[in-house]
Design a protein that fits this description.
mainly alpha, 292 residues
Length: 292
């Protein structure tokens, strides 16, 4: 079945907080610390947890697949990652972390018929994701499925999220937006304040140079805001991203996707209500675009 792009985008918005819990939950930091990773900031565990499905990937590969981070930042956190623990140890730790975190966050919902139903629907969609040319999705689809509904839901959310992310990189490249241009153009349309994007740790001169390249293309104004053409290009990127993320949802009927959305709202509200996730991020989840 073919779903409208608004449905595809809605499913991403609902599943993203479930996936992203890994990078913010105290339990994830505790498990990372037990392996020997520094936890005074979230990045050492972020890079280890997210890259672990790839095996002992080096900075060049991680930089290519994560796309928008400064290469120096990737080098700093990825180069020593597998000297601290093996990817297999990290994968075990992230499973323990998510099991603990979701049990705490979801409370009585764990083991409920509603959570089991949501997990089954999400797994069907994730299992239908074509991973050809989607390395992050493929890597996360490789581990066996958990028998626990909350962990099944998290793995499905992660596969679908990384499937979308792989497609997003393709969409950015199709519109001539490199890593820094991707961030500067997203800040220009108001996805988040520019200081939120500073978390990717590009130097000021690199950010400025990217803005100058976008200005030369007529995509940003002198004050850094998007021109009409800049808004059009970013909308085109998001539309193509949604189009490339749509296929897995075709295995569910309209009624099943609506049911999954309904089932996801309570656990997502539990997660968001816990205050773990940042109010603003580089993802621009709340943005509305002209094609929507």
């Amino acid at each position: 079945m073919t779903h409208g792009l608004s449905t595809v985008r809605q499913m991403w918005q609902l599943l993203e907080p479930i996936h992203a819990t890994l990078y913010y939950a105290p339990e994830a930091l505790e498990e990372a610390a037990a392996l020997g990773y520094a936890t005074d900031e979230r990045w050492p565990s972020y890079f280890a947890y997210r890259a672990a499905p790839l095996g002992p990937a080096g900075p060049r590969l991680v930089n290519a697949l994560f796309y928008s981070f400064s290469p120096r930042m990737v080098e700093r956190h990825t180069a020593p990652a597998w000297r601290t623990a093996t990817p297999e140890q990290v994968l075990d730790a992230r499973s323990r972390a998510m099991d603990r975190a979701l049990r705490k966050l979801l409370g009585d919902r764990i083991g409920s018929p509603e959570l089991r139903e949501a997990a089954q629907l999400a797994r069907r969609a994730a299992s239908a994701a074509d991973t050809a040319g989607r390395p992050m999705a493929a890597a996360n689809a490789a581990p066996p499925w958990s028998e626990e509904p909350h962990m099944t839901l998290w793995q499905a959310a992660t596969i679908l999220r990384e499937h979308r992310g792989d497609g997003h990189i393709a969409a950015l490249q199709a519109h001539g937006l490199g890593p820094t241009e991707a961030l500067v153009s997203h800040a220009a349309v108001g996805a988040a304040p520019a200081d939120v994007f500073s978390s990717r740790q590009w130097a000021d001169e690199e950010w400025t140079a990217a803005g100058e390249r976008l200005a030369a293309r007529g995509l940003v104004e002198a004050d850094g805001s998007a021109t009409d053409e800049g808004l059009r290009v970013r909308a085109a990127v998001e539309k193509l991203t949604d189009e490339l993320a749509a296929a897995p949802w075709g295995v569910l009927t309209a009624g099943e996707t609506a049911r999954l959305a309904e089932l996801l709202v309570p656990p997502v509200l539990d997660i968001v209500g816990a205050g773990l996730l940042p109010m603003r991020s580089t993802l621009g989840i709340g943005m509305k675009y002209a094609y929507e």
